[in-house]
C-alpha cells in the first residue's frame, strides 16, 4: 500500500488488462474510500494526480446545478467510485 499526501492506495491488475486502484483518504473530516479503473499502467505519481483530479471534478460537480438538465450532456464517471466510510 502506497501512502502519498494522506491518500493511500493499492493496485491490482485485472484479467481485462485494466488496472484497478483502491484508495483511502484518511485526513478528511469524514474518511473516504473508492476505486479507480485505468486502462494503462501508470506510475504512482500519475495515479495520485488522477485521483486528485477526479476528486476535484467531483467537488466542482456538487455545485453544478446544470448537471440536472440535458443541455450539457452530463455523464457519470463509471471509472471512479467514491464512498464515505
Task: Walk me through the structure.
There is one protein chain. The chain has one domain (2-84). By secondary structure, it is an alpha+beta fold. It contains one helix and five strands. It has one helix at 44-62; strands at residues 2-4, 7-13, 19-25, 32-38, 80-84. Strand 2 and strand 3 form a beta hairpin.
Q: Tags for this entry?
A:
22% helix; 85 residues; globular; 1 helix; 5-stranded antiparallel beta sheet; alpha+beta
Shape: globular
Q: For the largest sheet, list the strands in their spatial order.
A: 1-2-3-4-5
Write down the secondary-structure element order.
EEEEHE
Percentage of β-strand residues: 25-35%
Number of strands: 5
* Overall pLDDT level: 80
CA radius of gyration: 14 Å
Spans with pLDDT under 50 lasting ≥5 residues?
none
Question: How much helical structure, as a percent, in the residues?
Answer: 10-25%
Q: What's the number of domains? A: 1
* Helix-and-strand structural type: alpha+beta
Number of distinct helices = 1
Multimeric organization: single chain
**Main sheet overview:** 5 strands, antiparallel
Give a quick precis of the structure.
This protein is of the alpha+beta class and 85 residues long. It contains 1 helix and 5 strands.
Blueprint (SSEs and pairs):
Elements: E1 2-4, E2 7-13, E3 19-25, E4 32-38, H1 44-62, E5 80-84
